[in-house]
Amino acid sequence: MKEHHLQPTTAFQVTAQGHAVRTVDLWKTYPQEPEPVHAVSGVSLEIAPGEFLAMAGPSGSGKTTLLNMLGGLTRPTRGEVWIAGHELSQLSDKALARLRLESIGFVFQAYNLLPVLTALENAEFSLLLRGVPKEERRRRVTDLFRKIGMDGLEDRRPGRLSGGQQQRVAVARAVVGKPALVLADEPTANLDSHASDDLLGVMEDLNRELGTTFVFATHDPRVMDRAHRLIRLVDGAVVSDERR
Fold this sequence. Notes:
Elements: E1 21-30, E2 37-47, E3 52-56, H1 63-70, E4 78-83, E5 86-87, H2 93-103, E6 104-107, H3 119-123, H4 125-129, H5 134-147, H6 163-175, E7 181-185, H7 193-210, E8 213-218, H8 221-226, E9 229-234, E10 237-243
Parallel strand pairs: 3-8, 3-9, 6-7, 7-8
Antiparallel strand pairs: 1-2, 1-4, 4-5, 9-10
Helix pairs in contact: 6-7
Protein backbone atom coordinates (compact mmCIF):
# COMPACT_ATOMS: atom_id res chain seq x y z
CA MET A 1 0.00 0.00 0.00
CA LYS A 2 1.37 3.37 -1.01
CA GLU A 3 1.83 5.82 1.85
CA HIS A 4 1.30 9.54 1.44
CA HIS A 5 3.14 12.45 3.01
CA LEU A 6 1.44 15.64 4.10
CA GLN A 7 1.98 18.77 2.08
CA PRO A 8 2.67 21.88 4.18
CA THR A 9 -0.03 24.05 2.62
CA THR A 10 -2.90 21.56 2.82
CA ALA A 11 -2.06 19.21 5.66
CA PHE A 12 -4.47 20.22 8.37
CA GLN A 13 -7.60 21.54 6.68
CA VAL A 14 -11.08 20.24 7.47
CA THR A 15 -12.34 17.83 4.81
CA ALA A 16 -14.21 19.26 1.87
CA GLN A 17 -17.34 17.48 3.12
CA GLY A 18 -17.18 19.50 6.35
CA HIS A 19 -16.13 16.67 8.67
CA ALA A 20 -13.54 17.06 11.42
CA VAL A 21 -13.54 13.26 11.82
CA ARG A 22 -15.04 10.49 9.72
CA THR A 23 -14.81 6.74 10.18
CA VAL A 24 -15.93 4.12 7.67
CA ASP A 25 -16.72 0.56 8.80
CA LEU A 26 -14.02 0.67 11.47
CA TRP A 27 -12.96 -2.57 13.17
CA LYS A 28 -10.37 -3.54 15.77
CA THR A 29 -10.03 -7.26 16.35
CA TYR A 30 -7.70 -9.03 18.79
CA PRO A 31 -6.81 -12.72 18.33
CA GLN A 32 -8.03 -14.80 21.24
CA GLU A 33 -9.09 -18.38 21.91
CA PRO A 34 -11.61 -19.81 21.33
CA GLU A 35 -12.81 -16.79 19.30
CA PRO A 36 -11.29 -13.41 18.37
CA VAL A 37 -12.47 -10.34 20.31
CA HIS A 38 -13.94 -7.44 18.33
CA ALA A 39 -13.11 -4.40 20.47
CA VAL A 40 -14.63 -2.11 17.82
CA SER A 41 -17.20 -3.51 15.39
CA GLY A 42 -18.06 -1.74 12.15
CA VAL A 43 -18.26 1.82 13.47
CA SER A 44 -19.08 4.53 10.91
CA LEU A 45 -19.25 8.08 12.26
CA GLU A 46 -19.21 11.65 11.01
CA ILE A 47 -18.16 14.35 13.49
CA ALA A 48 -18.54 17.98 12.44
CA PRO A 49 -16.09 20.75 13.35
CA GLY A 50 -16.85 22.29 16.74
CA GLU A 51 -18.79 19.36 18.21
CA PHE A 52 -18.64 18.62 21.95
CA LEU A 53 -19.21 14.88 21.84
CA ALA A 54 -19.05 12.04 24.35
CA MET A 55 -18.65 8.34 23.55
CA ALA A 56 -20.02 6.44 26.52
CA GLY A 57 -20.24 2.85 27.56
CA PRO A 58 -19.25 0.38 30.28
CA SER A 59 -15.76 -0.98 30.68
CA GLY A 60 -14.94 -3.10 27.66
CA SER A 61 -17.41 -1.33 25.38
CA GLY A 62 -14.63 -0.22 23.02
CA LYS A 63 -14.75 3.54 23.65
CA THR A 64 -11.06 3.94 24.52
CA THR A 65 -9.97 1.72 21.62
CA LEU A 66 -12.12 3.78 19.27
CA LEU A 67 -10.72 7.04 20.67
CA ASN A 68 -7.17 5.76 20.20
CA MET A 69 -7.92 4.86 16.58
CA LEU A 70 -9.32 8.35 15.97
CA GLY A 71 -6.01 9.76 17.19
CA GLY A 72 -3.83 7.40 15.18
CA LEU A 73 -2.45 5.79 18.35
CA THR A 74 -3.95 2.39 17.46
CA ARG A 75 -4.15 1.01 13.92
CA PRO A 76 -7.51 -0.48 12.93
CA THR A 77 -7.80 -4.05 11.74
CA ARG A 78 -9.83 -2.72 8.84
CA GLY A 79 -11.83 0.33 7.90
CA GLU A 80 -10.93 3.99 7.50
CA VAL A 81 -10.29 6.96 9.78
CA TRP A 82 -10.32 10.39 8.15
CA ILE A 83 -8.87 13.35 10.06
CA ALA A 84 -8.36 16.80 8.53
CA GLY A 85 -8.90 15.39 5.06
CA HIS A 86 -6.43 12.49 5.35
CA GLU A 87 -7.09 8.77 5.73
CA LEU A 88 -4.71 7.77 8.53
CA SER A 89 -3.66 4.38 7.17
CA GLN A 90 -2.33 6.11 4.05
CA LEU A 91 0.07 8.33 6.01
CA SER A 92 3.70 7.50 6.65
CA ASP A 93 4.70 7.20 10.32
CA LYS A 94 6.38 10.60 10.08
CA ALA A 95 3.33 12.25 8.55
CA LEU A 96 1.04 10.65 11.12
CA ALA A 97 3.24 11.90 13.96
CA ARG A 98 3.15 15.38 12.46
CA LEU A 99 -0.63 15.25 12.13
CA ARG A 100 -0.95 14.31 15.81
CA LEU A 101 1.46 17.06 16.84
CA GLU A 102 -0.12 19.85 14.85
CA SER A 103 -3.79 18.91 14.50
CA ILE A 104 -4.79 16.72 17.48
CA GLY A 105 -4.63 17.41 21.21
CA PHE A 106 -4.74 14.54 23.71
CA VAL A 107 -5.99 14.58 27.31
CA PHE A 108 -5.27 11.36 29.19
CA GLN A 109 -6.80 10.01 32.39
CA ALA A 110 -3.36 9.81 34.02
CA TYR A 111 -2.44 13.43 33.04
CA ASN A 112 0.96 12.29 31.61
CA LEU A 113 2.76 15.44 32.79
CA LEU A 114 6.56 15.41 32.97
CA PRO A 115 7.46 15.67 36.69
CA VAL A 116 10.72 17.56 36.11
CA LEU A 117 9.00 20.36 34.18
CA THR A 118 6.95 23.22 35.58
CA ALA A 119 3.27 23.62 34.78
CA LEU A 120 4.13 26.20 32.13
CA GLU A 121 6.86 24.04 30.61
CA ASN A 122 4.50 21.06 30.44
CA ALA A 123 1.80 23.15 28.78
CA GLU A 124 4.15 24.60 26.18
CA PHE A 125 5.84 21.29 25.32
CA SER A 126 3.98 20.67 22.04
CA LEU A 127 4.78 24.23 20.94
CA LEU A 128 8.45 23.58 21.72
CA LEU A 129 8.37 20.47 19.52
CA ARG A 130 6.83 22.55 16.74
CA GLY A 131 9.62 25.11 16.93
CA VAL A 132 7.50 28.01 18.19
CA PRO A 133 9.81 30.74 19.58
CA LYS A 134 10.12 30.95 23.36
CA GLU A 135 8.52 34.38 23.71
CA GLU A 136 5.48 33.30 21.71
CA ARG A 137 5.20 30.02 23.65
CA ARG A 138 5.24 31.82 26.98
CA ARG A 139 2.69 34.41 25.85
CA ARG A 140 0.24 31.80 24.60
CA VAL A 141 0.51 29.60 27.69
CA THR A 142 0.28 32.56 30.08
CA ASP A 143 -2.84 33.83 28.32
CA LEU A 144 -4.39 30.37 28.41
CA PHE A 145 -3.51 29.82 32.09
CA ARG A 146 -5.27 33.07 32.91
CA LYS A 147 -8.34 31.84 31.06
CA ILE A 148 -8.49 28.47 32.86
CA GLY A 149 -7.66 29.73 36.36
CA MET A 150 -4.04 28.59 36.49
CA ASP A 151 -2.36 32.02 36.56
CA GLY A 152 0.16 32.27 39.39
CA LEU A 153 0.89 28.52 39.25
CA GLU A 154 3.14 28.59 36.19
CA ASP A 155 6.32 27.68 38.09
CA ARG A 156 4.90 24.79 40.10
CA ARG A 157 5.88 21.26 39.18
CA PRO A 158 3.16 18.57 38.96
CA GLY A 159 3.94 17.22 42.44
CA ARG A 160 2.84 20.53 43.93
CA LEU A 161 -0.45 20.69 42.03
CA SER A 162 -3.80 19.11 42.91
CA GLY A 163 -5.35 16.53 40.60
CA GLY A 164 -7.70 19.12 39.16
CA GLN A 165 -4.84 21.55 38.57
CA GLN A 166 -2.74 18.86 36.88
CA GLN A 167 -5.63 18.01 34.58
CA ARG A 168 -6.03 21.71 33.70
CA VAL A 169 -2.37 21.77 32.71
CA ALA A 170 -3.00 18.67 30.57
CA VAL A 171 -5.94 20.42 28.90
CA ALA A 172 -3.82 23.54 28.33
CA ARG A 173 -1.12 21.38 26.72
CA ALA A 174 -3.76 19.81 24.47
CA VAL A 175 -5.33 23.06 23.25
CA VAL A 176 -2.51 25.63 23.32
CA GLY A 177 -1.50 24.76 19.76
CA LYS A 178 -5.10 25.38 18.62
CA PRO A 179 -5.64 21.87 17.21
CA ALA A 180 -8.74 21.12 15.18
CA LEU A 181 -9.51 18.15 17.44
CA VAL A 182 -9.05 17.28 21.13
CA LEU A 183 -9.45 13.64 22.23
CA ALA A 184 -10.01 13.15 25.97
CA ASP A 185 -9.94 9.70 27.58
CA GLU A 186 -11.81 9.65 30.92
CA PRO A 187 -10.52 13.15 31.80
CA THR A 188 -12.62 13.38 34.99
CA ALA A 189 -12.01 9.85 36.31
CA ASN A 190 -9.54 10.93 39.02
CA LEU A 191 -11.32 14.16 40.02
CA ASP A 192 -13.96 14.97 42.61
CA SER A 193 -17.28 16.43 41.51
CA HIS A 194 -16.24 20.06 42.02
CA ALA A 195 -12.99 19.66 40.07
CA SER A 196 -14.82 17.72 37.34
CA ASP A 197 -17.41 20.46 36.91
CA ASP A 198 -14.70 23.12 36.78
CA LEU A 199 -12.70 21.20 34.19
CA LEU A 200 -15.72 20.56 31.99
CA GLY A 201 -16.58 24.24 32.19
CA VAL A 202 -13.08 25.11 31.01
CA MET A 203 -13.36 22.74 28.05
CA GLU A 204 -16.83 24.03 27.14
CA ASP A 205 -15.46 27.59 27.15
CA LEU A 206 -12.57 26.56 24.89
CA ASN A 207 -14.95 24.69 22.59
CA ARG A 208 -17.14 27.77 22.29
CA GLU A 209 -14.37 30.36 21.99
CA LEU A 210 -11.90 28.47 19.79
CA GLY A 211 -14.30 26.21 17.87
CA THR A 212 -12.22 23.19 18.85
CA THR A 213 -13.86 19.79 18.37
CA PHE A 214 -13.88 17.78 21.62
CA VAL A 215 -14.44 14.01 21.70
CA PHE A 216 -14.56 12.27 25.09
CA ALA A 217 -14.42 8.60 26.00
CA THR A 218 -16.21 8.36 29.35
CA HIS A 219 -18.52 6.56 31.71
CA ASP A 220 -18.95 9.69 33.88
CA PRO A 221 -22.60 10.88 33.94
CA ARG A 222 -21.40 14.48 34.38
CA VAL A 223 -19.58 14.37 31.05
CA MET A 224 -22.53 12.68 29.36
CA ASP A 225 -24.95 15.32 30.70
CA ARG A 226 -22.88 18.21 29.35
CA ALA A 227 -22.06 16.70 25.97
CA HIS A 228 -23.91 18.17 23.02
CA ARG A 229 -23.94 14.76 21.36
CA LEU A 230 -23.88 11.38 23.10
CA ILE A 231 -22.85 8.17 21.34
CA ARG A 232 -23.33 4.95 23.31
CA LEU A 233 -21.25 1.86 22.62
CA VAL A 234 -21.90 -1.74 23.62
CA ASP A 235 -19.51 -4.56 22.69
CA GLY A 236 -17.68 -2.28 20.26
CA ALA A 237 -20.74 -1.22 18.31
CA VAL A 238 -22.74 2.03 18.30
CA VAL A 239 -26.18 1.41 19.80
CA SER A 240 -27.41 5.02 19.98
CA ASP A 241 -26.42 8.46 18.73
CA GLU A 242 -28.26 11.35 20.40
CA ARG A 243 -27.89 15.04 19.64
CA ARG A 244 -28.96 17.57 22.27
